[in-house]
Amino acid sequence: MLLDRSVVGNLATVCGLFVGIASLLLALLDFFRQEPPRPDPAALADDLALRLREQWLEEAQARQLRDPRVLPLTWTTTSRDVVDTPGAGAANARVLRIRLDGRLDGRFDEVISRLAAGYAQVPNRRLVAIGEPGSGKTVLAILLTLGLLGVREPGGPAPVLLPVSSWDPVRERLDDWIVRTLAQPYYNGRAEIPRALLAHGLLLPVLDALDEIPESARRSAIRGINQAIGGERPIVVTCRATEYEDLIRGGAPTLRRAAVVEVSPLPPEDVVGYLREVDWPADVDWEPVFARLRAEPDSPVAAALSTPLMVTSARLVYQRGGGQPGELLDRDRFDCTYAVEDHLTHGLVDAAYAPDPHLTEEEAARDPWTAEQARRWLTFLACYLHDRRERDLAWWLMSGRLLSPWAGPVTGLGLGVVLVLAAVVWMSATQSIQPDDRSTAIVVTLCVGGAFALFNSLVWYTSGARPPGRLTWSLRGSTVRLLSGFRSGALLALVSVVPLLLGFTAKRVIDTPGGRGMPRATELYVEAVTTSAALAVVVGLALAARNWLDAPPLRATQVSPVNSLAQDRRSSLLSAAVAGLVVGLLGLLGWYAGVVSGDLLLRVLTHWSGWPARNAAGELAADRWDELSGTFGNWGSEVGIAMLLPGTFVALLVLMGRAWPRFLVARVYLAARGRLPWRLMAFLADARRRELLRQSGGVYQFRHIRLQETLAGEPTYADEQQVRAAARRAVRRRVVLAAGVGVALAGSAKAISGRRDESVEVLAEPKRRAVLRVAMEPGRGRELAYLVGDRSVWRWSGHTDQPPEVVREALPENSVGGYALAFPTDGSLLVMGSQGGAEIRDPHRARSTGSKLVQDSLSGDFSFDIVAFHRARHYLACGESSWTGVWKKSPEGTYTFFTTVDLDDVLDNVGRGSRQVTALDFFTNGSLALMDDRGGIWRSPAPGFGKPEALPLKSDLWKVSDDFLFNHDYGAGLAVSRSDDSLALFGPKGGELWRRRPGGWGTRPFQLGAARTGVFHPTGRLLAVADFYGGDVQLWHTGGTSDPYKGRKLTGHDDSVLAMDFSQDGRRLATAGADGTVRLWKIDDLS
């Protein structure tokens, strides 16, 4: 079939729209494809060397290596059998016989220069430094690295000091590990630059602590080093002497041709000279120890103090921690070297956090952490690292390792709730939702919150080990980054949006008259497909913009844990904001473009069947825009629902895929459980300043593996005495709980018998259904309405021999609320709580549908449970949760909404949280009295019903159970006298009467005894109070100014009375109870 010209023209219009978009994208790609020339590898090496020098100079300063009083290190060419003998070949003899003896003594710059000069003597530039644990091998490696950086010529190799504890030689080649280790902290995870530097021979690896690789993998490490360095590449390695000797003995021809120096033990003269220079407290005496060091150089204390680690530990312990170093001479306590070392290591944390003797008491009190706290937190970190056989404390890995698998869903649920609350607040603040659309808007918002919780869980699990990033601006690689981001975003949107839109469309089709056989159904499905494609483009653009910010850096960055955290925080916030901004700005337009494109495509293919007229593309587009914008009602809804909500949705998802927010969640969780401090990074930086931690690139490490192992070996479980005390407390709690339950059961089982029924009429509900509400019909004598447990409402004539008539059938079992019941002014109307608010019906018309008092004012899962009215001023108040609405009767006889009274408006400002309104009534002047679920009494003044004000009624007798609204076994109430505004308050703990005086309600109430509910006589001369524990009703005479006194007691109910109401003329009292009866009492004869 041939298409006519008009059809072809419209088809060309649709295709032209997409071609124009594609042309724009191609133009942008062509612009971003113009990349600047790549930098020279020598320049990259110079830049890296500059950053490395800054980093290690700062670390040397933190370790006090630049202090003139630093411990002198001595090293000599080793005599161990770890180097090939000259007989291995004449070509190697000159290398093997070079003497590399040296001593770290003198000015810092001179020392590192001498180290670099000594290394330059090694022809093959391969050096191994060995020594005992704590002998200073890492310090020697740092100083050598700084020396080589200092004498390095531009364009020469850059020495990189790399702790090898994170290398798994079984799974990863040495070169790949070097590239990865440099790429993450220095180049934002991009491996191109370090790989290029390694390929051009511009990296000199300094591998520190080969012995910290697990023993089972060390031989693989030796093999990997031999294979990587081959016959030419230089390398420096440090290792413990015994471990290296064991490894090299098995065969390592390349490393056996390397020069090996061994760090010597500290001689007693150096130890004594260093410790004499320390500024000790006045009572610290080292002389006995000095004498032992000189007299017995092989004693346990001398052997322990032969390493810089133990000497500096002793300085810290006795300079800050107190005590006498002479205790180390006790041969019973310290019978071996390990005993001395363990004693000093155990005391490090307490000494580091001991008060500085040079500070005043006020200055010392400002120390944010105690030694006990620091030990607990450092022990937790040490166990965390020990369990994973690691030394590097990388902050970005903590969330994936220390949080529960439920952290993702819980975090998503929490953020989803915040998203929902923010949307509700926005809609309320901007009044952007009409009453008719409020329930729909809330449902949509809840769906968005639920969808966010689901998607956040997926993002959380798929980005668990993402390293920190940083912001970089570069055109290099823009095309690849943009296409990669667009592809990921479009795919994510299609996978997530298409099922949701198709499901939503299917529901709309089912709701469409005629169903799927109608043309409208086809149009809806086509719109769903094109809208999905358009939204995929929008999300793709958002992630493309985010990806573009993640450019490969051209320069190395400064490396430290604090810096990497700050950089990732900035990068996370900006990338999330950009992605959210793109979705917020383009989301509505994308939706509109998808709908219009689908409609145009369908009409072009069907020769413009349906509305509008043929070729009226502009009219169709304008109609779709009016329809779309009309969905939101006003600007507030359009901005909030169509822009801010999806933008925030995407921004939060992008944010939760980054390292910093996940670390924030882990930090809050662990701090809340007492495992770590709230200011974790500040604590770690402070621990480094106190010489307990050290910094290695972007991670922290304990100052030595021995401190980590010592802390990890301390018990974290409670001792036996604490366990017994906890058990005793548990037993006491169970006894108290059992006693309380026993008392409650005894009270509730009290028998009621032998009482005379003095009511004049009785209605018994079938199957003893509890009657929860009762209302006397004004002007109708004894006629009344009542509500039973299934929320059905009935009208009764007040005569025992006449059955009731149904006014409303029972509400669905899974619905909530619907307990409100009242006659506002006369007998022509009855107000009842219903799903979505309340309704007004004519009780004299059986099964009348009535009308809505509030149309969709709340979600369908809620309704009004309490109601009050003021006959003279024609006010009607209905309450649900903390929200209370006030309506006013119009001259036409209908009730129109007047205003809202919300306790949350007051309580949020004073930090007291949300409260439920449990009772309402009106004062004589029309002001509204409210009672909340914690016993607070509030007044909203008429006629405007402004912000509620708390009344100064101090008591705690009427606090309400949380189950009050849903369980008839509990009750509470408030009643206002129509004569003098006296207040009667009722609750589980009793009842009180506050008499209204000219100056207020006084300061002390009159006690009414245990009371469940009550009601004032229309004249105010009587107050009927229901006994809380039984079914009796006590009449109190409240007329006049004297104290109330008891009148007759009404007996007849055999269970709690839950509701009461006087007739309008005051001659009758209706009571309803949990025993399933409604009773009428003649008050004239009983009062």
Number of domains: 5
Number of strands: 35
Radius of gyration: 41 Å
Shape: elongated
What's the CATH architecture of the largest domain? 7 Propeller
Classify the secondary structure makeup into a structural class: alpha+beta
Under the CATH scheme, which class of the largest domain? Mainly Beta
Determine the number of helices (DSSP H or I, runs of at least 4 residues): 32
Strand content: 15-25%
Calculate the terminal CA-CA distance, rounded to whole Å: 95 Å
Largest sheet: 7 strands, mixed
Runs with pLDDT <50, length 5+? 87-97, 747-754, 855-860, 960-971
What is the H level of CATH, i.e. the homologous superfamily of the largest domain?
YVTN repeat-like/Quinoprotein amine dehydrogenase
Give, in spatial order, the strands making up the sheet with the most strands.
2-1-7-3-6-5-4
- Integer average pLDDT: 80
Q: Considering DSSP H and I runs of 4 or more, what fraction of the residues is helical?
A: 40-55%
CATH topology of the largest domain: Methylamine Dehydrogenase, Chain H
Question: How would you describe the overall organization of this protein?
Answer:
This protein is α+β, with helices and mostly antiparallel strands. The chain folds into five domains: 1-34 and 476-553 and 566-654, no CATH class; 41-264, 3-Layer(aba) Sandwich (Rossmann fold); 269-367, no CATH class; 402-467; 761-1086, YVTN repeat-like/Quinoprotein amine dehydrogenase (Methylamine Dehydrogenase, Chain H, 7 Propeller), CATH 2.130.10. It is built from 32 helices and 35 strands. Helix 2 (41-62) crosses helix 5, helix 20 packs antiparallel against helix 26 (635-656) and helix 22 packs antiparallel against helix 23 (519-549). It is elongated, with a radius of gyration of 41 Å. The relative contact order is 0.06. Mean pLDDT is 80; it is low at 87-97, 747-754, 855-860 and 960-971.
